[in-house]
Amino acid sequence: MSVRSLSVRSVLGAARRRVQLSLQRRPARLRNGDPIVSFTFDDFPRTAYTAGGRILEQFGVRGTFYAAYGLRNTANESGEQFRAEDVELLLEKGHELGSHTFGHVSCRALSRAAFCEDVTKGNQAIAGASGVDAPNFAYPFGHMTVQTKRALGSGVASARSNVPGFNGPEIDLNMLLANRLYGGIDQARRMEELIAENAKRKTWLIFYTHDVQPNPSPYGCTPALFEATVACAVRHGCRILTVQKTLEYAEVQDGKAKGHVRRPVSA
Question: pTM above 0.85?
Answer without folding.
Answer: yes
